[in-house]
């Protein structure tokens, strides 16, 4: 801003973004619609798609350095149905896979399609 290369601290961009949201009717109609975050089975995509910050390689399994434990997590309809800690990585993965079979794929015999 001082040398003239930057014209705004970011406030102008925020204003333009807010105006763009107001002018885009399709976007405005979908604000707050959580159905867009779910796949065809009604399960949130974040539960079945591996994120780029996932270092364990398994969705829903993470390592806590402080506790020196592996954690297996699964949330269904806003409630944790699996929230356990394990010393062994393989046990955590097995617990997560069993919970997926029990809660996510109980109506079908195959994986959720995204």
UniProtKB/TrEMBL annotation:
<protein>
    <recommendedName>
        <fullName>AP2/ERF domain-containing protein</fullName>
    </recommendedName>
</protein>
């Amino acid at each position: 801003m001082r040398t003239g290369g930057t014209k705004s601290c970011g406030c102008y961009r925020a204003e333009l973004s807010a105006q763009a949201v107001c002018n885009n009717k399709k976007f405005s109609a979908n604000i707050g619609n959580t159905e867009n975050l779910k796949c065809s089975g009604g399960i949130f995509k974040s539960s079945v798609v591996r994120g780029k910050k996932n270092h364990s390689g398994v969705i829903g399994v993470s390592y806590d350095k402080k506790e020196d434990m592996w954690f297996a997590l699964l949330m269904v309809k806003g409630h944790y149905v699996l929230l356990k800690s394990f010393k062994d990585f393989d046990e955590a993965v097995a617990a997560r896979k069993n919970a997926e079979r029990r809660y996510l794929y109980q109506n079908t015999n195959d994986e959720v399609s995204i």
